Amino acid sequence: MTSSEAAQTVVAVFAHPDDESLACGGTLARLSDAGMHVVLVCASRGERASTSYEDQELGRMRATELTAAATTLGMSEVIILDHPDGELRWAQGTELQAELTLLLEPRQPAAVITFGEDGLYWHDDHIGIFEHTTAVVGALGRRAPALYYVTMVPGVMTEIVAAARERGWTAPSQGFWSLPPDAFGFAARPATIIVDVAPWATRKLAAIQCHRSQVGVGHPLELDEPAAMRWLGVEHFHRADLPSAGSQILESLACTSRR
User: Fold this and answer.
1) What is the per-residue DSSP string for 184-208?
2) With helix as H, strand as E and coil as C, how does 85-113 read?
3) How many other β-carbons are positioned within 10 Å of the β-carbon of residue 92?
């Protein structure tokens, strides 16, 4: 990464607290450590993610967890937009896009990172953020920053869950860990940029564990350092086909890059 890139801004746009850490926490930490101004935009507080808490209580809890995770990853700003959890694909789309435009235009980021079209595991809120962010960045035309979509390699979450079951873990009936692990990366567009984040894998894991209301105790991502390096040490992206030249920020970090 060049000295001019180190002074630039990267904006990560996600749906809920914990998306940032699970999806690309290693890359966000690596960019922060390289001197970049990393801004996290979270569209909701994720207040409907559990039946164990009232929505308002869980929303406050998850916002606090998000701040802790962002600090762990070294991010410069955290912005929560307060849209209703579970409604990001359909409700208030015009308002959300207007907010994203107002956030991006003055910051003039070199790059934006968000979900790909599969939303990692076909989550409607995630797909909505992909759609809204793509529309906003695309509307900037030649002024648009580079737009990167995070993706997941099929089978990785299946391996993580299988290892947890060998340790005696049992999947809950609801929540994140009740999802079928094969859904992660299923039918996703193949990555064209592969970023080595092995030196940041333990920080990524620590950030994930900040989201205690979601991952729980004894969850599959309670990994030792070798396991964290194995399963969390590489992150995958592909770049949106936009008319702007954009930066090459993630390409400059990549151990593999192809268009």
Assistant:
1) TTTTPPPPSEEEE-GGGHHHHHHHH
2) CCCCCCCCHHHHHHHHHHHHHHHCCCEEE
3) 16
DSSP assignment of 134-185 equals HHHHHHTGGGPPEEEEEE--TTHHHHHHHHHHHTT----SSSGGGS-GGGTT
Amino acid at 242: L
CA distance 22 to 236: 12
Q: Where are the domains of the chain?
A: 3-257
Q: What is the full per-residue pLDDT of the chain (259 aa) written as tens digits?
A: 554 555 699 999 999 999 999 999 999 999 999 999 999 999 999 888 666 677 788 899 999 999 999 999 999 999 999 899 989 988 778 999 999 999 999 999 999 999 999 999 989 999 999 999 999 999 999 889 999 999 999 999 999 999 999 988 888 887 778 889 999 998 888 999 999 999 999 999 999 999 988 776 678 888 888 888 899 999 999 999 988 777 899 999 988 654 4
- Name the CATH superfamily, with its identifier, for domain 3-257: LmbE-like (3.40.50.10320)
